[in-house]
Specification:
The chain has helices spanning 19-33, 37-45, 51-57, 72-77, 88-101, 160-165; strands at residues 58-66, 82-84, 102-115, 118-129, 135-147, 150-158, 174-175, 184-185. By secondary structure, it is α+β, with helices and mostly antiparallel strands.
């Protein structure tokens, strides 16, 4: 994935002769460096292991929702899951954990689009667990919200049954999902 980030206002000149002119010029300078919400998320996704970039694009009070709102059972397998309100720290810890638990073969964005502050991302990834050497390919989706060049809300979803399964030593258990069917072992 090649990302290009060019933001500018062209060759316009502005007067600094009044306070209002100076304020407008400062606003324009700030806007020159401001990325669109889509560009901000693209920059983050291209730098998920770079804490400096993460801190530059994540709001200090950002909410990160990883896979679910709160699931203590899943947190035993994937400790970073759940809802976190620690800003960039939650993003850094999550992606550090993913890189510690799995070898990442592929992380591919298939579609990314935005409307206003909202950015939707869809893709696939392939990971291999470092403990059991089990490989998984999963779809993923992201809903991010960006304001003033900072991600303030980020929800990441994947096939957690499959990804957690890369750490499974014994069968998952006995299930009974179909009301007309019988229980079965996985």
């Amino acid at each position: 994935m090649i990302l290009s980030f060019t933001v500018g206002l062209g060759n316009q000149s502005f007067s600094q002769t009044s306070t209002v002119g100076t304020i407008k010029q400062n606003e324009l300078k700030q806007n020159e460096n401001m990325k669109t919400p889509k560009e901000t998320v693209e920059l983050f996704l291209a730098n998920t292991t770079n804490p400096d970039v993460i801190k530059s694009v994540v709001d200090p009070n950002a909410t990160y929702i990883s896979l679910n709102f709160n699931n203590p059972e899943l947190q035993k397998v994937l400790p970073w899951t759940g809802t976190h309100h620690e800003g960039a720290k939650a993003f850094i810890d999550t992606f550090a954990g993913v890189n510690e638990f799995w070898t990442i073969q592929d992380f591919a964005v298939q579609d990314i689009f935005s409307e206003g502050e909202k950015v939707a991302v869809f893709g696939t990834f392939t990971y291999t667990s470092r403990t059991l050497n089990k490989k998984v390919t999963s779809p993923f989706s992201i809903l991010a919200k960006v304001k003033d060049g900072k991600i303030y809300h980020f929800m990441f979803m994947e096939d957690t049954f499959a990804t957690a399964g890369t750490f499974r030593i014994t069968p998952a258990g006995t299930f009974h999902s179909d009301p007309k069917g019988k229980e079965f072992k996985s």
